[in-house]
Amino acid sequence: MPTLYDSPRDAVADIESGASIAVGGFGLCGIPDALIAAIANTAATDLEVFSNNCGVDGQGLGILLEAHKIRRVVASYVGENKEFARQYLSGELEVELTPQGTLAERMRAGGAGIPAFFTPAGVGTPVADGGLPWRYNTDGSVAVVSPPKEVREFGGTRYVLEQSINADYALVHAKYGDRAGNLVFDKTAMNFNPLAGMAGRITIAQVEHLVEPGAIDPATVHLPGIFVQRIVETGPQHTQIEKLTIRPGGASR
To answer: Could you read off the pLDDT of 43-77 as tens digits, one per residue?
Structure first.
């Protein structure tokens, strides 16, 4: 049974500097915002983050970036975060960009106990051949580049070997969770949440509604409780819209 916490602050209190953290969400959709905000108020720094992206300026993981608490990010894109791009290009942040599907599978494989896997994504590009800039110097020159990866042929097709991800902690946001740790994510907020939850050695779930075991139909569980070690009930999430697009003049159909 996972441990229940009274507040996000208590749930993340033991996360230390240098820890690695897998974080669910896509942009601002389904992000564990309360847990991220709680980490921002701790002394933890020098963090390595595995996430699809790094939020936006002033929201989501962007809060930790602005506080200079993140040392390294493994993500699929920079997104709408100007501070993320600034820190990367100025040499303040190390960034390993990886294909989105590969990142998802690296997290899933880590949770499934698979140390590595072969995929065709990235073969014939710097993703496989190496040379991607992971960190820049302050003068704009490249300080650290990605190493080449093993490539093998199966059935006439070339594949690149990718290593799985196991993080010290994982942070996820769920619509419903029971006291046994079983989680249900809301529509597209499912995104990277179950995968990040699988990758964490200690997975911390913020749930909008905490229910008793048996209240969730087993057939609807998205992440089984075996992957969840801590739960905190945070109430309904008021999701911020990353980029609002409306009809000219606000006309409706």
So the answer is: 999 999 999 999 899 999 999 999 999 999 999 98
Q: Are 210 and 158 in a shared domain?
A: no
Structure tokens at 96: 């390993």
Neighbours of 246 (CB within 10 A): 8
Is residue 117 classed exposed, middle or buried when 0-12, 13-18 and 19+ CB atoms within 10 A define those classes? middle
Say yes or no to pLDDT of 252 above 60.
no
SS3 195: helix
Say if residue 128 is in the same domain as residue 219. no
Domain assignment present for 10: yes
Say how far apart CA 156 and CA 105 lie, in whole Å.
23
State the CB neighbour count (10 A cutoff) for residue 15.
21
Residue 29: strand, helix, or coil: strand
Question: What is the phi-psi region of residue 78: left when phi exceeds 0, alpha when psi lies from -120 to 50, beta otherwise?
Answer: alpha
pTM value is: 0.93
DSSP string, 130-179: ---EEEE-TTSSEEEEPPP--EEEETTEEEEEEE---EEEEEEEEEEEET
User: Do 131 and 87 fall within a single domain?
Assistant: no
